[in-house]
């Protein structure tokens, strides 16, 4: 029976998770039963979706079914474990399970793992040769048939993208191997003696701070990106060098690679600060009429790594670069979401990177994505994000087609495509601008979606998960609004609490002064030490009885109590303390007053002090009441608790569904995102508020 809606299991249209904490859920039209969300609570539901994402078996390669479709092939490569990257000696958090599978610790519950399946998984021992032979070589022959192909390395900074794509002299990576293979394929065709001529050329560019820069003819000029009427992406002004041999490629490629912007960060001493794209163009021209011409392009892309600036230690220019890198990678993620959701408008134009990769994702290229990951724990969240991105990318289907023109010109003369697209781009300018504007309006910026640097890990993950799940834009915005609303509420409550504490402080100080003046007026022999402190701790009734002050003076003392009635902390301190243990409490109170005076305003000496000033029975009663709400409250009830907004309330419901009731209030700290500090604020705010009630 479906856990969400109670429907009886009938067909295969079900999701059964391997995760024991996740019940069976019913699926309708490929979507998971909506009621599950309500029943499971947000946390478990997310867990469920992640496990669904992680364990989804890839659909059979559509390329086999239809010649016109080719699914993006996704490989994951795990870099060898590096001791120097693991200062805390925590070991690895990722483990390979087989040629296609791997698992990673579940951040929500360290006793569980999340398992993923990809087209191929390359373990730490995999050689450059193996990666090339199994993932890249098979797509290269398409280039000679006028089709496009692309290989791109994705992953967090320091995970091995440049190693995979560029490699080193001893271990050359995908780029040199692929170019050599293209030359070999062409040579093989030429020796077969077909009636085609082949030319091979290269361009090399980097996208640095959202600028397209030519690496073969370095300059600071930002090159424009254009699209012709056949949706070919072109970059007018970009150097295109004709190559006659592989060694010629080398002579251009090596010095140009040194032009690429790299810098040292905390996570990688030679970190790529830009996305680098090598473009190899194979033009195949028929020698005889009708002089057909086919053009195949190979994009070899080494993406810059996603960066968490709290760990990279980036500042100044590095921070700006990082912002541009993260923004373009975020747009890449949005593009993948849109493609998976099948929405008409895909935001390719939101970044230069996606604009250039337009053909590789949802376009006409045969694409391979190599996701590089690092095993060390400090990369955990980056790895988790990269795996989810890879997981959703494997659902993208491209539609390769042959780019062929029948040229009226003799072979060897340049076609319009080879010359660039200035002529064709102009009429489309207006349309493109409009589309660009529409897309920008529809899509929220990174700043809106990703929490700022001070956001909690939980917020960040929830936001990421939401993005990973390819949710529609509106749903995503709603979540963000809810999160923003909860933050505002928490902020307001904090301010209110602070304000009340300030008032109480002023009140105490005033009353102390007044007490002194009352006593002095009544009995000039009594010292300040004997009377002031003790009297300050007495409830108004005691004071009235014991001092028998004149009505005028009494009024002066009693009036501020109107303040203390709305200030439970101070009211309780006044009522309970002298009755419990006068001498100790007196010392404590002196300290509180001194500290408050020193600080001017604010909290008591420590955040736990307030508890000692309450009567134990009152404290216990309040705690029981809060525990009751936590264990049996509905979403609405939970939201009546202080510092619990919609999101936290849902997390609590999720927790209850998985783990049962909270044995004690302290168990709240077992939930993700509830730190000891947050817990103590929660307890304080709620106990005080139950006392007021
Ligand atoms: N498969 C591997 N085998 C051996 N060493 C590797 C492997 N992958 C990566 N490395 C090493 O790890 C370090 C970081 O790798 P690399 O510079 O390729 O990361 P990156 O993902 O390109 O980082 P960034 O995004 O910051 O440029 C390098 O010293 C590299 O030699």
From TrEMBL:
CDD domains: KISc_KID_like. ATP binds at residues 155-162. GO terms for biological process: microtubule-based movement; mitotic spindle organization; spindle elongation. GO terms for molecular function: ATP binding; DNA binding; microtubule binding; microtubule motor activity. Gene3D superfamilies: AF1531-like domain, Kinesin motor domain. Belongs to the TRAFAC class myosin-kinesin ATPase superfamily. Kinesin family. This is Kinesin-like protein. InterPro entries: Kinesin-like_fam (IPR027640), Kinesin_motor_CS (IPR019821), Kinesin_motor_dom (IPR001752), Kinesin_motor_dom_sf (IPR036961), P-loop_NTPase (IPR027417), RuvA_2-like (IPR010994). Residues 71-396 form the Kinesin motor domain. Residues 411-421 have a biased composition (Basic and acidic residues). Residues 406-449 are annotated as: Disordered. The lineage of its organism: Eukaryota, Metazoa, Chordata, Craniata, Vertebrata. It comes from Aldrovandia affinis. One of its GO terms (cellular component) is microtubule.
